[in-house]
């Protein structure tokens, strides 16, 4: 009877130890710099090129608005002597509307358009970075992955960035930007 009791206690103790070890393994914590990951992804480099092209187009649009205003203003100045008061008033309003359109575009619309375009381009890249990081965490037994930028101290062994680079077949670039734009 005592042997059975000792065997049961031993089995129970082994089971508890196994559960404790399994629970400990499930609480493995790692970290990653998603900003560094995104900045090294080929999709990000392409998105940067697209953003530069889009920015050039917006600058050109602002320049076109400015030139339209300047041309209308010059025309108004040269022709205003021949205009009646009501025509001058209509032309001044037209000039004012053009000026407002130009300044609103330069001061607000262009920036908003740029931000929206950036989000459209970066959202799928950031989603891919997160999904791949989650897959690597799962494959390597990590229960939690924290953002490296939020940590004060961390062991280098728990940085999953090299594992994610390997899964994505990315060779990190030493001079890659330290920070990619953040998702809003």
Automatic annotation (TrEMBL):
Keywords: Signal. One of its GO terms (molecular function) is unfolded protein binding. Transmembrane segments: none annotated. The keyword DNA damage does not apply. It comes from the Bacteria. It holds the Pfam family OmpH. GO terms for cellular component: cytosol. One of its GO terms (biological process) is protein stabilization. Belongs to the Skp family. This is Outer membrane chaperone Skp.
């Amino acid at each position: 009877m005592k042997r059975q009791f000792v065997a049961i206690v031993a089995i129970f103790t082994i089971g508890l130890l196994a559960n404790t070890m399994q629970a400990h393994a499930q609480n493995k914590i790692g970290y990653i710099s998603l900003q560094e990951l995104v900045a090294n992804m080929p999709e990000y480099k392409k998105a940067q090129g697209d953003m530069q092209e889009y920015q050039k187009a917006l600058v050109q649009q602002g320049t076109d608005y400015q030139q339209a205003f300047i041309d209308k203003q010059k025309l108004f100045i040269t022709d205003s002597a021949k205009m009646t008061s009501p025509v001058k008033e209509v032309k001044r309003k037209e000039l004012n509307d053009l000026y407002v359109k130009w300044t609103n575009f330069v001061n607000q619309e262009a920036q908003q358009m740029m931000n929206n375009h950036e989000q459209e381009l970066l959202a799928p890249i950031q989603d891919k970075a997160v999904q791949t990081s989650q897959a690597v965490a799962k494959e390597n037994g990590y229960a939690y992955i924290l953002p490296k930028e939020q940590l004060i101290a961390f062991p280098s062994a728990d940085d999953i960035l090299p594992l994610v680079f390997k899964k994505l077949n990315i060779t990190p670039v030493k001079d890659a930007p330290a920070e990619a734009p953040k998702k809003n």
